[in-house]
Each structure stands twice: as C-alpha cells, then as structure tokens.
Specification:
By secondary structure, the protein is mainly alpha-helical. Helices cover 72% and strands 0% of the residues. It is built from twelve helices and no strands. The longest helix has 33 residues, at 82-114. The N and C termini lie far apart (59 Å).
Length: 287
C-alpha cells in the first residue's frame, strides 16, 4: 500500500509595488460636494437667487413678491404664532386620515393575498376609485359628514388608500415562492404569513406606497382646505393661503406655499429617508 507524499508548504515573499503611485486624497471641495445635503442646499440657493432676480425684474409685489419679502412674511408668521397654529391644525387632520388610510389599505391587501374574493375586491375597487380625484369627493363628504374634520378625513383616506394598496399588493406579488413556502413550513398562514414573511420582503414597495400616499394626502388636504375653508372655527394652512389671497397679501400667500414645500421636504428627508436607511438600505434590499 503506497502513501501519497505530502507537499511541502512554502511562502512566497511578494515585492512591494513601488511603481504604482499612491492615490492622493480628494480635495476638500470635491469631498464636500459628495454630500447630498450640500448639493441640495446649493440647488435651493440657486432657485432663491433666480426667484429674487425675477421678482426684481418684474417689479410688481402684488403679482410676484421677492424671495426676501416672502422670507420676511414667513418669519413674521412664525414669530406671531399664526403659521405654527395653522400648520398644527392641518397636521392633526392629516395624521388621522393618513393612519386610517394605512389601516384600510393593509386590511385590503392582506385579504387580497389570502383569498380569491379579496383579490377580486381589491382589483375592482382600485379600478373604480383610484382614477377618481379625492378633491372631487369633497361635496359628497360635506353632504354626508357636514362641516367638520370628518369631511376632510374622508377625502384624505381616499387619497391614501388606493395608492398604498396598489404598491403594497404589487410588493406582495413580488415575494418569491421560496419565502412563501418557508413560511408555510413554519406553520404560518393568513395574517401571520403576511406579517412575518410578506411585509418584510415587500418593504421597499410598501415604503414607496407610503411616500406616494403621504404626497397625495398632503396636497389633497391643502386643496380641500382652500375649498372647504375653516373647520370648527379653525382653519389650516390651506385656509391661511386662501384668506391672504382674498386680502391681497401675496407675500403671505407665498409664505404659506413655502411652508407647504418645507414640510414636504422635512417629511421626505427626516421620516422616509430615515426609515429607508434603517431598514431596506441596511438590509441590502435597496441601494
């Protein structure tokens, strides 16, 4: 019986690559430009400069106030407490409608992935109501719920529900059959399968639906307040814009619009980007 000889171990000493130049550190300006917040700030400053130049060239404060005039009106509204109060009224109503829309969308999509009747129900309802503008339902909401917050919440639910349900259901359909079978092997079915398997796997689509639903709800609320006016003796941000337009305070109108934009930027940057960074990006599900 012969034995196979054991090969001797050896180590090869590699010479340093002195011919390859060491990469130098990037200049400070180029390193700073790699930060997204700085690039976006530069874009906003350029827009403000163009706005100021166009207003000065136009020369009519009633039609187009300058950026500095709008900033002064915004500062006065913040200091006086008028703008924060209007924003608070709008955000409270928005959160009620947004949360209720999320709950209904989750219920519909959970039913759709569990039963054939649920799939038919979701498909039929989204085909019927998704193309319908939420603001078009405001007259019916006023007729059904009267002059109160419930009318605004009704149109907000409509604006959130269908966009979120479609994105969530599309995400559920994209979950691989391997994950579904793994969940069933662990005895998961129905709502437990949705919560433990489908929701984590479809989270990028769900977050996308939440962002779309938020944008729809925010602009629907402002438009509804412009038409609907004050609710229970209190008016929101849309009512603030409408009231100042009637009184020809164009700088305050632009200040109200600026607050609408700033709130949208803050929610997008602080809430949704943070959620994506802590979940789907951290888990490698999104770049």
């Amino acid at each position: 019986m012969t034995t196979t000889p054991v090969r001797q171990e050896y180590e090869v000493q590699l010479e340093p690559l002195l011919s390859v130049p060491v990469e130098r550190q990037l200049p400070l300006a180029q390193r700073l430009w790699q930060h997204g917040w700085l690039r976006k700030t530069v874009i906003l400053l350029v827009i403000a400069a163009l706005w100021e130049g166009a207003a000065r060239y136009q020369g009519n404060d009633l039609l187009l106030p300058s950026f500095l005039q709008t900033a002064a009106a915004l500062w006065d509204g913040l200091i006086s407490g008028e703008l924060p109060a209007k924003v608070g009224v709008s955000l409270v109503i928005l959160l009620k409608g947004y949360v209720l829309g999320i709950a209904l969308a989750f219920g519909l999509t959970s039913l759709a992935v569990s039963t054939q009747l649920g799939r038919d129900l979701l498909g039929t309802l989204t085909s019927m109501f998704n193309p319908l503008p939420a603001i078009a339902l405001l007259p019916l909401a006023l007729l059904w719920f009267g002059l109160g917050d419930n009318s605004l919440i009704f149109v907000l639910v409509h604006s959130v529900l269908w966009a979120l349900a479609l994105n969530t259901y599309a995400g559920f359909l994209g979950v691989s059959e391997t994950l579904r079978m793994a969940g069933r092997n662990y005895g998961l079915k129905g709502l437990r399968l949705v919560l433990h398997i489908l929701v984590p796997a479809a989270l990028p689509s769900i977050l996308s639906g939440l962002k779309i639903g938020w944008a729809f709800a925010w602009r629907t609320l402002i438009a509804a307040e412009l038409v609907f006016g004050a609710s229970s003796g209190k008016g929101g941000l849309g009512w603030y814009i409408f009231q100042n337009r009637n009184e020809l305070y164009t700088d305050k109108v632009f200040a109200g619009l600026a607050v609408v934009i700033l709130i949208g930027l803050l929610v997008e940057g602080l809430v949704f980007n943070t959620l994506e960074r802590l979940t789907v990006r951290r888990w490698g599900m999104q770049r």
